[in-house]
Structures are given as C-alpha cells and as structure tokens.
Amino acid sequence: MLHRSSTITRSEFEQHTGWVFKPEGACKGDVCIPLRDNSGDNPNDKSAMLDLESLAEQMGMPLISSPQHKLWALGPESVSSRALTSASAPPLSLPDLAGKPFDLASLRGKKVVVYAWAPY
Q: What is the CA radius of gyration of the chain?
C-alpha cells in the first residue's frame, strides 16, 4: 500500500489492505493479530488515525518511507510466510527498451520502487 502520510484512518487502512479492526486486533480471514491500540479505545471508530510505523512493527509488515517526498510504502504482511523477509533484491539483469542489458545493481544506494503485478 502506498500512502502520502505517516498516519492513516482505520477506514482507509481496512479498505487498502483487507485487514479489519476488531476488539481482538487486526483480522484478515481467520487470522487476528493483537494490537496495542494507538488511536483510542473504540475499534469501531473508522475515522481514528493510526500510526503506520506502529502498525508495521506490530503486524510484522515492512514500511519504507521518504518523508521529504511524502511517500510511505507498507506491506505486505508476512503472516503466511510468503512475504519477502528483506528489501535486498537478487542479482538481476534484463534488457532495457533499446535491448541493451541493464543491471539492477547499478542502482545500489538509490531509492528504487519495484512494482510487480501478477494476474492471480
């Protein structure tokens, strides 16, 4: 999930991630993660503001931020052990639009957003 602030309403978080806040914590399907509430006592208050850094830590979700660009990237959750455990990419070289090889390592030290999509 990409967001323009370090805080988000409960409603936006639920809409963009599929997690639902209940008294027992953040839930998705049969999985619930207990949370230290950082936004008041009422989990039904959909307008309550949540701190992305706190949520990421509690839910085991990676969070990358660039406050000067007003951009925060959160997720995915690692409850199913299928998420990446680090932000290190493997060696990768692919042809660019001109057909010349492009090595991903040439971007080391720079901020890079890698967007992947799968139709499943």
A: 17
- Please give the single-letter amino acid code of residue 52: L
Cα–Cα distance for residue pair 3/51, rounded to 1 Å: 12
**Side-chain-facing half-sphere of 14: CA atoms under 13 Å:** 17
CA-to-CA distance for 103 and 55, rounded, in angstroms? Answer: 34
pLDDT surpassing 50 at residue 119: yes
pTM of the entire structure? 0.60
pLDDT band at 40 (very low <50, low <70, confident <90, very high): very low
Both tokens assigned to 119: 């139709």
pLDDT in tens, 6-32: 999 999 999 999 999 988 889 988 889
Could you give the residue ranges of the DSSP H alpha helices within 1-120?
A: 10-17, 52-59
Task: Please classify residue 74 by burial: count the beta carbons closer than 10 Å to its beta carbon, then call 0-12 exposed, 13-18 middle and 19+ buried.
Answer: buried
